[in-house]
Amino acid sequence: MRHLKILSTSDVHGFLYPTNYSQRDDHRPYGWLRAATLIRQIQAQAGPDDIVLTIENGDWIEGSSFDSYLATAVPEQAEILSKIPQALNYDLGVLGNHEFNYGLDYLRNCLAERNYPVLGANIDGGHAQGIIDAPYQIFKKKGVKIAVLGLTTAYVPVWEPTSHLTGLTFQSALATAQHWVPKLKQRADLVVVAYHGGFEADLTTGQPTEQITGENEGYQLLTQVPGIDALITGHQHRLIAGVYHEIPVTQPGDKAVAVGEIELDLDGDNQVVGHRATLLSTAKVVPDTTLSAQLQPLQDQTQDWLDTPVGHIGGASLQVTDHLAARLHGHPYLNFINQVEAAAGQVDIAATALFNDDVQGFGTTVTRRQVLNSYPYPNTLVVERVTGADLKAALERCASFFTLQDGQITVSDTFTTPKLALYNYDIYAGIDYTFDLTQPVGQRLRALSYHGQPVADDQELDIVMNQYRGNGGGEYPMFRASKIIREINVSVAQLIQDYLTAHPNVTGEQPYNLTILH
């Protein structure tokens, strides 16, 4: 009997070292260098009848300060990001949605030095653009033919500016798998689907857990594509391991907190007679010493770069210590980000999010480290011309973020389950608005005014926001590309630094334009 282990990392987001870069000596129980030690051990321990297949499942080149340093300060060294998996003999890679954040030229640089294929069956034009090698590949290992189909969430064009997707079209992961899996089943003993996407429904009951938009199609892959022997997923940063609808599934979180492991037992005809799925925690694993030493010069340069001062803050503190209070009442830090956005967009209504609760804001002396930790995404900005009715609908979506439990305000489960999505709540500047949390969701906006006057449904308003929200991301369908009147194609983090350079002494101010009734 042969034994196949499928190892996967996903959504590492450049967290190679066990740190979140919040300070120079920060130390965390995660990081890809820990995962590397685990992978090396499993590869080394494989017996004569054991097969190991290793997959990097996307969102690799963006997210951490290490990645930001490479992309913005030394892009000519970006090929290190493809050399690292190569050092561990990864068999293949799949592109995640964040691979496109810095544009195709940078992505090609990142993929330049590798000896493993990048697979993407549902990215039309990917081969011509030099970012995809093939839709699938059949690996022959110890007499077993293993077909791997690569898929990426089809929702990438919703988030990315068109300039980052030249020549590319994204097809449904489900439709693509329905086309390819039957063909691959005829050509190989096993079919593995590596999907940078997640689940739109409960894996057991099939009850929808989010709006069915095409962003996540994992449940449909499980239930509507016969012939899949193993399903690797990601994108949602969830910790999932189990057998669902007779298919073993993994999703190993983010920042390499775990390695996904699927085990398939094969009989003499290479048919699956047993399957298991588990997550291997990296928390107590020692980081790989060889790769740590190889990467240390870049890590040291990153830390020095992060400690560069970029501005000074006076007045009210821009440090965030109570995230729920900041979302309920506004905060000087959020007010400052909206100020930067409004200046860049040349409008007076701006919206920004606090993202998740690891955002710390700025100290008195602002360093690049603080900027990137507080605004970790390379979002650019758009200005949209919307109606008063559009704005009211967006604010109702924001108001649904909160719920009352025994008279206390907490965050609604829809923003925390199945995926933590606190970044889908926005704080606005340039308007005065009131939420009444005692009212049903959808009827909570009690008052809305602009320049002291009530906003009419047919009134036209120009609003600046990041391009993720501007394309409707986060279940904001009232915002869309057709309403964009201006684009600011500079990352928000860079806009913040440029603003601080132009205004080296910023005065923090607490906003008072949001009122919460409960």
TrEMBL record:
Residues 326-480 form the 5'-Nucleotidase C-terminal domain. GO terms for cellular component: outer membrane-bounded periplasmic space. InterPro entries: 5'-Nucleotdase_C (IPR008334), 5'-Nucleotdase_C_sf (IPR036907), 5'-Nucleotdase_CS (IPR006146), 5_nucleotidase/apyrase (IPR006179), Calcineurin-like_PHP (IPR004843), Metallo-depent_PP-like (IPR029052). PROSITE patterns: 5_NUCLEOTIDASE_2 (PS00786). Transmembrane segments: none annotated. GO terms for biological process: nucleotide catabolic process. Keywords: Hydrolase, Nucleotide-binding, Signal. One of its GO terms (molecular function) is metal ion binding. It comes from the Bacteria. Residues 4-238 form the Calcineurin-like phosphoesterase domain. Belongs to the 5'-nucleotidase family. This is 2,3-cyclic-nucleotide 2-phosphodiesterase. It comes from Levilactobacillus namurensis DSM 19117.
